[in-house]
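Exam revision sheet. Question 4 asks you to relate a sequence to its structure. Input first:
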Amino acid sequence: MYNTTAALKCTDRNSNISSTTAGSMQNHCQNRSLFEDVLCQLDGIRVLENDTLRVKVTNECSFSCKFCHREGSIKSGNLALNTASIYGFTRLHKELKLTQAHLTGGEPTSYPHCRELIGELKSIGYRVKMTTNGQFEPDLIRRLKDAGLDGMNFSIHTFDAQKLCSLQRREKNIEWGLQALRQQLENVHMAQESGMEVKINTVVQKDADIYDVLRISDYCKNTGIGFRILNDLGQGASSIQQIDVILKSMNANVENINIINKSSGGFLNMVAKDGFKFKVKCIRKNMLETLCGKCKERDECMEWFYGIRVEQANGGAMVRLCIQRQDYPAMQTFEEFFTSRQFMELM
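Answer key, structure tokens:
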């Protein structure tokens, strides 16, 4: 059995990959980190470009999941959809070649201008997806698809109503949990029927019930829905170790690895003994040197540099480059960002 923990955990050093083919990894395999040591033993390595913009449209959410980092802020407001924000999205698309926009929150479906924003992003040239808790009326799916939404990632972490309640910061009762699960599954089905790309994301905490994850995995396998396991960033290695336990219980092996250039993000493409294929998200120690170089958190950071986020703060749309800092240059206006050293490093 392949030790997945070795591939999930990266703590040695910055492992920024600039090449785009597996063959060019050969020279990179000298003086390699633990994570790269695993990469260099596997065939089928693929390096993807960092082409995704995360847009936090609201902080509002009917869930209060204990592990949710809310993209780094609990104080951001509803995104102002105006000339300035559209101008920023357009420049990011043209100059940094960002081609996918992922709507997050909070809960994106609670954002009052969700369909208008999707339409604007599509007109710029983005493919648009969102991560959702699935708590909305099913007829909204048709309207979102008509606006141009390409896909939905549903955050589902258990099929047990009581356990769902226990994951919330705010106290909930069993009736709430049962209704929330019914709503999620109905909307997953409706989204799949609409023809959109549909995935389920499951966050695994250190004390996660293996049975919960296996039930969700079986559901995805039986319905043809994409499945992705995520670790709890706040729990670090302990969450990763629990994922390893789950993967072993599934008799799952790594088929290949996708890593993302100039990003800490990536994922393991897994295959279970029964042939079911799914993904496990992983984080590697990738730094944006003009941001992370002198940061006191650089060796203990949860995420390092993952990618560009946009959120509403300080009266306007702001570029966020780190989920653990609220200062400059981690937070910048569009005007500041496009003349910044961070922008030049990403070019």
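Marking note for examiners. The first helix runs from residue 4 to 8.
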